[in-house]
Amino acid sequence: MRLLLLCLLLLAGLLAPARAAAEDGYRLWLRYGPVEPARRARYAAAATALVGEAPSPTLRAARDELARGLEAMLGRPLPVEVGGARAGAILFGTPASSPAVARLNLPVGRLGDEGYLIRSVRVDGRPATVIAANSDRGVLYGAFALLRRIQTRQTLERLDLADAPKVKLRLLNHWDNLDRTVERGYAGQSLWDWHKLPEWQEPRLRDYARANASVGVNGTVLNNVNSNAQVLTPPYLAKVAALADLFRPYGIRVYLSARFNAPMEIGGLTTADPLDPAVRGWWRDKAAEIYTRVPDFGGFLVKANSEGQPGPQDYGRSHADGANMLAEAVAPRGGVVMWRAFVYSNEKPDDRAKQAYDEFRPLDGRFHPNVVVQVKNGPIDFQPREPFHPLFGAMPRTPLALEVQLTKEYLGFATHLAYLGPMWEEVLRADTFRAGAGSTVAKVVDGSLHGRTLTAMAGVANVGTDRNWTGSQFDQANWYAFGRLAWDPHGSARAIAEEWARQTWDNDPRLVAPVVDTMMTSREAVVDYMTPLGLHHLMATDHHYGPGPWVDDLPRADWNPTYYHRAGAAGIGFDRTTRGSGALSQYAPEVAQRLSDPRTTPEELLLWFHHLPWDHRLASGRTLWNELVVRYSRGVAKVRDMRRTWAGLRPHVDAERHTEVGVFLAVQEKEARWWRDASIAYFGSLSKRPLPAGQTPPAHPLAYYRSLRFPHAPGQ
Ligand code: GCW
Predict the structure, then answer these.
(1) Cβ 181 under 6 angstroms from ligand 1
(2) Could you give the residue ranges of the DSSP H alpha helices within 430-542?
(3) Looking at the whole model, is its pTM more than 0.70?
(4) Ligand 1 centre and the CA of 224: distance in Å?
(5) Hey, which of 66, 168, 373, 492 has its CA 20 to 30 A from 346?
C-alpha cells in the first residue's frame, strides 16, 4: 500500500505541469530560456554556425554573447568559424573585421557609429543572416537585437532591419557613495567595491555591463551627484580606471560626478572660483590626469548650488561660468559636462517649481558646445506625476538632457510594482509648442527640434548588490525601459513592456497579456493612492517612505508638504496661474492657456496648477473632495487587482520569483491602504466633509498616522 502511494506520488510529480526551474532574477532579461521544441527547428535552421573574426574585445563580447545565448536557447553549441558559410550561418562583423561582411557591400555607412543592420542574405548561394555595422559596438548591439528576436519569438526569416540610437549619450547615473551606501538606493549596496578595487573586480560587473549593452546604455556615472572629492584623488582614479577597462568592451564609458570645490578639498587651493586662473589650471590638470588613466573618460556630471552643494554662485559666478570651466578642461579629449538644472533655494521665496527655469533660461547660448544641461522630467522632483519641465524647448541654443529616476524614491521604493515606462512616455510625448505644434520633449531630447547633435538621456540607476539587481523583479523593467527609451525616445512603453515580459518571464500569451496590462496600469495606481489629481510632494520627511501630508515644520518652506498642497477649510491645490505663483507663464502660450483654466486642465494635473474649493465639480459630476476620495480608493483597488492577476499566473512562473512578487504585492496593497487612509484622514480634517457613500473610513484616527516613525527606512 505504502509502495503504491509512493509510486502514485512519484507519478503525480512527473505529470505535474512543468514549472520552470527555480530562478532568482539574477539573469534579468538575458535568461535565454530554451525555445519550445515545436519552434526550435526553425530557429536552429537559421543559426547553424557563427562566422566572423573577433579581433577586438567588443567583437569578442558580441561573439560570446551570441554563442552563449544561442546555445542556451537552441540546446546545442554552435561552431564558430572565421570563413566560409554553411546554410543558416550567422555572419557578424564590420567590413573591416570580416571579409565576408565586406563582400556583401552593405550600406553600413548610414548607420553611424552605433547602429547595426541585420539581413537575410545569400552567401555562395546559401542562405545566411548577417549582423553588420560600421563599428564593433554596432555589431554588439546587433547581436543583442538578434538574440532579443529569438527570446521574443520573432522570425529570423527574410530580415531587413536597420536600427541606430536616436540619442547620443545614454547614461546611468549612480547615486553611489564611496562607502558603498546608495542615496535613494533600495537594492542593496553599491556594485562598486571601492575597497577591493582595482585588484578585485566582482564577476557580476561584467553582467552589469552586458545588461547595459543589451539595452544600449553607453555610459555610467559612477558616483553620487552629492559627491565626494576623494573620487578624484589618484588612488580612486586607479579604481575608476579598472572599472572603465572592464566596461569598455561593452561600449560603456565612465563619467564622474565632480564636487565643485574639489580644488579646495583635495587640491589645497583657497578658492574654487571658476574665473580664478589657478582653479582653472587645477581642473585642466585633473582632467589630463584622468585621461592618462582613462583615455575615453566621458566627462563630469555636476550638481552645483543645490541642496547645499558648492557651486559657482558661491563666488558670484553663474552656472555657465562653472560649467564652461569644466568643459574647457575635458574638451581637448572630447569629454562633456552634464550640468544639472535641479536647483532651488530657500532664500528665494518664489515657487520652487519656477526656479530652474528662472536661473537657466537666461543662460541659453552661454554654455560651451560640450556642455549638456541635464533637466529632470518635471519641475519639482521625480513625483509620481508632474507636468513636463518648462525648460524643455525653452533653451534652443543649449543641448538639454532628460533626467529620469529609475530608483523609485517617490513611488514606493523597490517593494511597490510601478512600471515607469508610461511616465517617461508621457513626458517624452508632451508637446512644448516651442516651435509650433508637435514640438515634443522627445524631439528636444533627440535634438531634432533645434538641430542639435549632442544629445543625452540620463537615468538615476536602481541597481545594487541584491541578487535580483534592482531590489525586485519588476524594477528590472525600469532599467530595461530606460535603455530602450534612451535609444529611441519615440518608442512605446507598452511595446517595451511586452518585450521585457517575454524575455524576463515567458512567451506564453496567457502570461504576457496580463503581465503587460498589470505593468501598464501600475504607475497610475501609485498616482491614485499617493498623489491623485495633481497633488505632489506629500511624502514623509527625508526618507520619503509613506504619507506625510501634514508635515509643516521643516526649516525650508519648500520641503513641507503643506507648501505644495495648500489645503485648508476653503479648498486645496497650488495656484500656479497668474493669480498665483505665475509658474504657468514659463510654458509656451498654447500650453499656458490651456492649463490656466481648471476646465481645460487635464484632471490628472488639476491641483498642480489650481487651488480649488472642495465643492468644485469635476467631469465625473462629483465634487473635488468626493473625487479625491474615490481616486484614493481606486488606487488601492488597482493594487488588489494586480495581486489577483499575479496569483492567477502561478502555473506560468517559477516558484521563487512568483513568491517574491506575490509577497511584495501584498506589501504594496497594505501600504496603498495606508496612503489612502492617512491622506483621507488628514484632508478630511480640513475639508470637514463626509466620505462619499460606500467609502470605508480610515482604519485609524489621523493621530495614529501622524505618530508613525521610520528612522531606519532605506535609501537615506
Ligand atoms: O530627489 C532628491 C533626492 C536627493 C537627491 C536630489 C537630487 C542626490 O531626495 O536625495 O540628491 O533629489 O536629484 O540631486
Answers:
(1) no
(2) 441-445, 476-487, 493-504, 509-530
(3) yes
(4) 10
(5) 373
- 342 and 310 share one domain: yes
* For the CA of 382, the nearest atom of ligand 1: 1
* Greater pLDDT, 13 or 295: 295
For residue 676, count other CB atoms closer than 10 A to its CB: 27
Are 494 and 520 within 8 A, CB to CB?
Answer: yes
Question: What separation in Å is there between the alpha carbon of 156 and the centre of ligand 1?
Answer: 45
| Residues assigned a catalytic role | 307, 381, 409
Tell me the best of 381, 411, 413, 536 to mutate to test the pocket of ligand 1, counting ligand atoms within 8 Å of each CB and taking the most: 381
pLDDT score of 15 more than 70:
no
Range of the domain at 32: 27-163
Strand partners, 376: 403
Is a pLDDT exceeding 90 seen at residue 8? Answer: no
> Which grid cell is 336?
562633456
| Residues 271 and 375 reside in one and the same domain | yes
Whole-number Cα distances in Å, 695 to 629, 666, 677 = 8, 21, 11
> Which of 323, 324, 326, 320 has the alpha carbon at shortest distance from 290?
326
Q: Does residue 344 have its Cβ closer than 6 Å to ligand 1?
A: no
pLDDT tens per residue, range 277-296:
999 999 999 999 999 999 99
- Is the confidence at residue 611, as pLDDT, over 80? yes
Ligand 1 binding pocket includes 542 (Cβ within 6 Å): no
pLDDT in tens, 104-124: 999 999 999 999 999 999 999
> What total of structural domains would you count in the chain?
3
Q: Is 545 in the pocket of ligand 1 (CB under 6 A)?
A: no
For cell 535634438, the residue is 447
